[in-house]
């Protein structure tokens, strides 16, 4: 079967709009119909939200739907599902898992979170201690996860746990889909420096996960997790933004609208950061185009590194540009937001929230190692624990 071209996708999009007019169709019903028509992810297989079309043609569908004022699936609210869970399900899920999870994931009817990091295994994720023990057709999971965005909203979680402590740490991990409504799952808010609690800590006590919710073979969860992590870094650092999108936008607007705040030094710094932000945006565009050829590679780690550094430097410049105004903070009300917003609210919020950018999605220190070893080909750091069973590691 020949993959549809741009003209065919426009035709199918117009058929969708004719049958389900956005002005009179309930939002969820429209999104379900879009998924069923193969116009959700056009590069996904037919029947799973796609049409086996080139990834580059997704913009043809998106533009036609935007022109018709059709609803989107609020991607910022379900970013973990879209950017991390979906490509992992596509790569490693069974046919049954793909049919069950992909449609409500894409429509936003089911929110996902990520149970990876732990208090004792953040940067060294493969040292995780959460255990999953086989019991008949189920796995019984006990442990603690941390820094879990949207866990308070999520129905499902992608989870990695240790299933074999007698082998080296990378080889004894398995990957699961965890129902966040099951008994034994406890979500507690973690209040951040911003005053909000978009992150959580999650306690797992005797949680039973059926083996049919395992992704990939037993003991090969690290391989599956690499797909998740590489897609996560692209979704964070390589997100599609317009020129002057992201952190640089508010600073540029303030510069144009408040000439009394300008100094020569601030102008030089702003211009440097504006150029770097534009370079990062264009590089992200090229990286997304490379995805047409397959899964993201380690280059996404470099984009995520640049994203974190730029956000922190730009938000620092914005606070300095505003002078005394930059020292103000709108309010510290404890709340649990429904989405992760790197650039929302005021300058003070952006400054504080950006501090987490160099931690979430892989710490900058770990990503520097990945870029050095897997992109630049530099010698790897000595790893004395490479062939040591996890149970024998010092902790």
Helices and strands in order:
Layout: H1 6-19, H2 27-36, H3 58-67, H4 79-92, H5 95-107, E1 112-115, E2 131-135, E3 138-145, E4 156-162, E5 173-179, E6 185-190, E7 199-210, E8 214-215, H6 221-237, H7 248-257, H8 264-290, H9 299-321, H10 347-353, H11 364-375
Parallel strand pairs: 1-4
Antiparallel strand pairs: 2-3, 3-7, 4-5, 5-8, 6-7
Structure characteristics:
8 strands, four-stranded antiparallel beta sheet, four-stranded mixed beta sheet
Protein model, in words:
By secondary structure, the chain is of the alpha+beta class. The chain contains eleven helices and eight strands. The chain has helices at residues 6-19, 27-36, 58-67, 79-92, 95-107, 221-237, 248-257, 264-290, 299-321, 347-353, 364-375, and strands at 112-115, 131-135, 138-145, 156-162, 173-179, 185-190, 199-210, 214-215. Helix 1 (6-19) runs parallel beside helix 3 (58-67), helix 6 (221-237) packs parallel to helix 9 and helix 9 packs across helix 11. The longest helix has 27 residues, at 264-290. The termini are far apart.
Q: How would you sum up this structure in a few lines?
A:
The chain is of the alpha+beta class. It is built from eleven helices and eight strands. Helix 9 runs antiparallel to helix 10 (347-353).
Radius of gyration: 22 Å
Query: What separation lies between the terminal Cα atoms?
Result: 55 Å
**Assembly form of the protein:** single chain
Instruction: State the total count of DSSP E strands.
Output: 8
Biggest sheet record: 4 strands, mixed
Shape: globular
Order of helices and strands: HHHHHEEEEEEEEHHHHHH
**Number of distinct helices:** 11
In round numbers, the mean pLDDT is 92
Helices and strands: which structural class? alpha+beta
**% residues in beta strands:** 5-15%
Largest sheet, spatial ordering of strands: 1-4-5-8
* Helical residue percent band: 25-40%
Unreliable stretches covering 5 or more consecutive residues: none
């Amino acid at each position: 079967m020949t993959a549809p071209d741009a003209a065919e996708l426009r035709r199918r999009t117009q058929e969708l709009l004719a049958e389900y007019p956005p002005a009179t169709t309930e939002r969820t019903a429209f999104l379900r119909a879009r998924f069923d028509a193969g116009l959700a992810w056009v590069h996904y297989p037919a029947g799973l939200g796609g049409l086996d079309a080139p990834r580059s043609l997704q913009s043809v569908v998106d533009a036609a739907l935007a022109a018709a004022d059709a609803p989107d699936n609020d991607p910022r609210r379900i970013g973990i599902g879209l950017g991390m869970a979906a490509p992992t399900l596509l790569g490693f899920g069974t046919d049954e898992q793909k049919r069950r999870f992909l449609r409500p994931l894409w429509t936003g009817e089911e929110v996902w979170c990520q149970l990876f990091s732990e208090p004792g295994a953040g940067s060294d994720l493969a040292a995780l201690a959460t255990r999953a023990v086989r019991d008949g057709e189920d796995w019984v999971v006990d442990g603690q996860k941390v820094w879990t965005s949207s866990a308070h909203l999520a129905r499902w979680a992608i989870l990695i746990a240790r299933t074999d402590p007698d082998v080296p740490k990378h080889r004894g991990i398995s990957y699961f889909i965890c129902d966040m409504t099951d008994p034994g799952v406890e979500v507690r808010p973690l209040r951040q420096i911003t005053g909000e609690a978009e992150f959580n800590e999650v306690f797992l006590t005797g949680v039973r996960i059926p083996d049919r919710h395992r992704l990939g073979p037993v003991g090969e969860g690290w391989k599956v997790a690499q797909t998740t992590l590489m897609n996560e870094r692209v979704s964070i650092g390589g997100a599609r933004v317009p020129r002057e999108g992201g952190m640089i936008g508010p600073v540029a607007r303030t510069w144009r609208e408040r000439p009394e705040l300008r100094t020569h030094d601030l102008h030089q710094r702003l211009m440097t950061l504006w150029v770097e932000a534009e370079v990062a945006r264009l590089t992200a565009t090229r990286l997304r185009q490379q995805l047409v050829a397959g899964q993201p590679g380690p280059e996404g780690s470099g984009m995520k590194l640049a994203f974190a550094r730029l956000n922190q430097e730009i938000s620092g410049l914005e606070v300095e540009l505003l002078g005394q105004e930059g020292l103000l903070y709108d309010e510290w009300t404890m709340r649990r937001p429904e989405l992760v917003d790197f650039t929302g609210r005021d300058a003070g919020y952006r400054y504080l929230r950006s501090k987490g950018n160099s931690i979430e999605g892989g710490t900058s220190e770990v990503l520097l190692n990945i870029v050095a070893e897997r992109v630049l080909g530099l010698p790897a750091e000595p790893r004395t624990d490479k062939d040591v069973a996890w149970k024998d590691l010092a902790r």
